[in-house]
Design brief:
The complex is a heterodimer of chains A (about 290) and B (about 325). Chain A is mainly alpha-helical. Chain A is built from eleven helices and two strands, in the order H-H-H-H-E-E-H-H-H-H-H-H-H. Chain A has a two-stranded antiparallel sheet with strand order 1-2. In chain A, helix 2 runs parallel beside helix 4 and helix 5 crosses helix 6. Chain B folds into two domains: about 30 residues; about 220 residues, no CATH class. In chain B, a hairpin with a 2-residue loop joins strand 1 and strand 2. Classes of the chains: A mainly alpha (about 290), B mainly alpha (about 325). At the A-B interface, helix 3, helix 4, helix 9 and helix 11 of A face helix 4, helix 5, helix 10 and helix 12 of B.
């Protein structure tokens, strides 16, 4: 049982980080970023190339993943989303754009990195055995780093000037603009930050599960699940959703193992019932 | 005063779809286009359901679930219960509508991205259900579904069995396009009726619509049921063409594509999904020749299209009218 909880916590930390990026972009721009999973995959491949192929230190690779995705996210916001939001009549139009970008990134990833499953050498060798729990050291390091990033993100949102500006933006875009917050700049920054988080998790998880070009869509789907559980656009909700999904998955795979591959079916069913009772998730705003 | 113009447009559409296209295909000898165009027609039917949800202000990315469900209902009825395809077709649609009412009761309370995300998840649920349930035969799917038989009344054969056609796909082409024409005619009628006005009111502001005395929950269930009916219908015919169904016959990608068809065609017009489906499906097919860059160019064009025409293809000729409305 302890093992199941430990797995759930480790998984939850990764998931929370993915959901944070998605929810940040949603909160600031009201955009559902379909391409989030693809950004994750891209981050994974950057780390694979630098750490796995060039054999540079892992930290450098992780930085490279983060910076690549931040730049990409910034460009996407500046060149694509800003234009479309300005020109289109209905704001749902951004969903087509996001889906188009998801397909585009899929194609780019496939062309650049091929369709093979890629893995990298372990970052830390060895396995921790404490009582009933068996946990490889690299998972502990990766889980710890994820928690560190989450804490860092929360601190930044709470106590720095850009963090405060972004929170203001999420609360009320027009009011923030009237108070003199440079809305466009912080939208750009927020999108870059959200994409960066996706890239970071990609870089972290490539050391454990590896990466292949096809997992972008499923990762996006999982990120949507977490955001729905926790409530869209809320930092606390994303973290809660991530940990809950990680735990459910870990418990489900153990308990429901005997009945075949139905863990996700059960999770979906539970989610539908949950959403019937709390349509906005645990902490979501009344209107998405 | 637009009546004659509209009738003329309808006549041109019918002539092109039912006469000119089959003749052109026959002349060119490209009989594979029958299949392509049938697919376009069926996907357009499913997309029109999604469009109706857009019309009441909801983003439905779950149409793949109902297409899959309709396909399975029809396939199971035909292969296991010995039903005629023609009877299974409305039953598949009605089954989907009934299920959508059950699911819709809780999830239609959600709005915006919440509804979009839940419906996206629904597609995945449908796939997993199809894998897990015993009646759907798991990953192996249901294969060798017989082609639609004959319809007769009082000893007169109205529609001959599809197997007797020399070109089976021509029969399916007519079936699909006739269904598409009927569905879009019905949808056009619906949207321009009193109910259609209520839908627009809900799209603009549900609370306000509710305060005017519109029964908003009932209306959105109605819209969702119609939308799912169309999805199930399209799925059932699709399965009859393919003669097989698997859990992966309709996936999340298809659901997203149904939504994209509506966007590309334009959300402001009933015929948007038809045009969007035609453009996207043919665009994808034409780019097949390019090989590995297919997806890159396809998605690149889609993003560009969004930048240039964010309100859809049908918005090209609309600016003057829209200006007048505002």
């Amino acid at each position: 049982m302890e093992q199941v909880v430990a797995n759930g916590l480790y998984l939850g930390a990764q998931y929370a980080l993915i959901a944070l990026g998605l929810t940040l972009i949603f909160a600031l721009m009201n955009v559902l970023n379909f391409a989030h999973g693809q950004m994750y995959v891209l981050g994974g491949f950057v780390t694979y190339e630098i750490y796995g192929q060039l054999r540079w230190p892992f930290v450098v690779a992780l930085f490279a993943s983060a910076i690549t995705l931040a730049v990409l996210g910034g460009l996407i916001e500046r060149l694509l989303f800003r234009t479309v939001i300005r020109r289109s009549v209905r704001e749902e139009s951004t969903m087509l754009l996001a889906a188009g970008i998801a397909y585009f990134l899929d194609a780019v990833i496939l062309l650049l990195f091929g369709e093979k499953q890629r893995g990298v050498p372990k970052i830390v060798p060895g396995v921790l055995r404490a009582g009933d729990i068996i946990m490889p050291y690299d998972r502990i390091v990766v889980g710890g780093l994820a928690v560190l990033f989450i804490v860092g993100f929360i601190l930044m949102m709470q106590y720095t000037r850009p963090g405060r500006a972004m929170r203001a933006l999420a609360q009320d875009r027009i009011a923030a603009q009237l108070m003199g917050v440079p809305v466009e700049f912080y939208s750009l920054l927020g999108f870059a930050l959200g994409a960066m988080l996706a890239g970071l998790v990609g870089g972290l998880l490539v050391t454990i599960t590896g990466v292949n070009s096809g997992i972008g869509g499923p990762i996006s789907l999982k990120a949507f699940l977490m955001v729905m559980i926790g409530g869209a656009g809320v930092v606390g909700g994303a973290i809660a959703g991530g940990f809950i999904l990680g735990m459910l998955e870990s418990v489900g795979l153990t308990v429901l193992h005997a009945y075949g591959d139905i863990t996700y079916l059960v999770i979906f069913a539970a989610l539908l019932i949950f959403l019937a009772i709390r349509p906005n998730g645990l902490m979501g705003k009344p209107w998405g | 005063m637009f009546r004659p113009l509209r009738l003329a447009a309808l006549a041109v559409f019918v002539l092109v779809v039912f006469l000119a296209v089959p003749l052109a295909i026959k002349a060119a000898g490209r009989t594979d286009f029958y299949y392509t165009l049938s697919s376009v027609a069926l996907l357009a039917i499913a997309s029109s359901g999604v469009w109706l949800m857009f019309h009441i202000g909801r983003i439905n990315i779950g149409q793949g679930a109902f297409a899959l469900m309709g396909g399975y209902v029809s396939a199971i009825l035909v292969t296991s219960a010995g039903f005629s395809f023609w009877l299974s077709l409305p039953l598949a649609g009605l089954f989907c509508a009934a299920v959508s009412i059950l699911i819709g009761l809780p999830i239609l309370r959600l709005r915006g991205v919440y509804f979009a995300m839940v419906t996206l998840v629904l597609t995945e649920v449908a796939r997993l259900l199809a894998l897990a349930l015993p009646i759907t035969n798991g990953a192996k799917g249901i294969t060798s579904i017989p082609a639609p038989g004959a319809i007769g009344a009082f000893g007169v054969t109205l529609v001959p069995a599809f197997d007797t056609f020399a070109e089976r796909n021509l029969a399916f082409y007519y079936l699909s396009t006739i269904m598409m024409t009927l569905c879009f005619a019905a949808l056009y009628r619906l949207v321009h009726s009193r109910i259609g006005k209520l839908f627009v009111a809900m799209q603009q502001n549900e609370e306000l619509a509710s305060s005017m005395g519109i029964n908003v929950p009932a209306m959105r269930i109605l819209a969702y049921a119609i939308s799912s009916f169309l999805g199930g219908l399209a799925g059932a015919i699709f399965i009859a063409i393919a003669q097989s169904i698997y859990p992966s016959s309709f996936t999340v990608n298809d659901s997203v594509n149904f939504m994209l068809n509506c966007f590309v065609g334009g959300l402001g017009h009933v015929f948007g999904p038809m045009l969007g489906t035609l453009v996207l499906y043919f665009g994808w097919d034409l780019l097949f020749a390019i090989g590995q860059y297919q997806l890159l160019i396809y998605s690149g064009v889609m993003v560009l299209l969004m930048l240039v025409l964010p309100n859809g293809l049908l918005s090209i000729r609309l600016p003057s009218r829209r200006g007048a409305r505002k």
